[in-house]
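dumping these here so i dont lose them again. two proteins, back to back, each one seq then structure tokens. dont judge the mess
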Amino acid sequence: MKRYCLAVDLKNDAALIAEYEQYHQRIWPEIAASITDAGILSMEIYRIENRLFMIMETNDDFSFATKAAADAANEKVQQWESLMWKYQQALPTAKPGDKWMLMHKIFDLNTAS
């Protein structure tokens, strides 16, 4: 199993943030299927102010490239991503087109000495 942590920002607007959270109370079934079909075993999203933090646990065969290709070919995923972009904004260091950015682990209590 692998674990990935990612971040993205929301537009700093209380009404938009509330709408975004509402959508995530019950995501579209096609989106849940696309997540699990990609080999994602667990996904959690946390928020502080307008910053989102996602933790994904995946099977060993998971690939971001394979997931991106499947998402690009899935009309419902494209509709969802377009809708979510109404609420999201790229991190300041993101390249054009980047949304969720992979975070790098800098500390692990289990390996600290």
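---- next one ----
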Amino acid sequence: MQLDIVSDTVCPWCYIGKKRLDEALQIHGGEGISLVWRPFQLDASIPEGGVDRKAYMEKKFGTEKARTAGNTIREFGEAVGIDFRFEKIERSPNTLDSHRLIRWAGTAGCQNEMVDILFRRYFEDGEDIGSHDVLADAATEAGMDADIVRDLLLKDADKELIRQEDMLARQMGISGVPSFVVNSKWVMVGAQEPETLVRMFNKLLAREAEEAAAAQ
């Protein structure tokens, strides 16, 4: 069973969803489940280099709502071990390059770890994950070759592929993240509780087994 997780690196609910998914896989055991992280840009209009986060949030939500927007998310984060530090985030980045890095991490065999690293660096450490220096440092942390990553980031490598995957997700009807897509057929939207994910894994794995047996 292939599980595609459609998410954005600046989506706090995606970080919560990642932690819940990790717990679900631990409960289930993960046997027969292959994970692939897919890109979705919540705001592709943010320019390269990013924008001031405070001004961006106030423009998007209004001054008062922007000030209190993270309170509920912090509570959910604490429940899964995330220390959201929104006050440390100075830039709202364009996330295209971070998605490129996640794609390359898949080739290097450390994609799931890279997703964790980028979430932590952005939401807990307040780092600018649109910065090539930060992304290269994240690559080093994951055991990748930072020099190769720097070189790729300076080029247009896989930019169009990321945009096409983002567009494909939208064509599938995905408008919110995180979304979990199973075998390109079934979609579950939102940061689901671990128990819900485990039930989904068991049900769909059983269905796949039945279909395979019937085809023999």
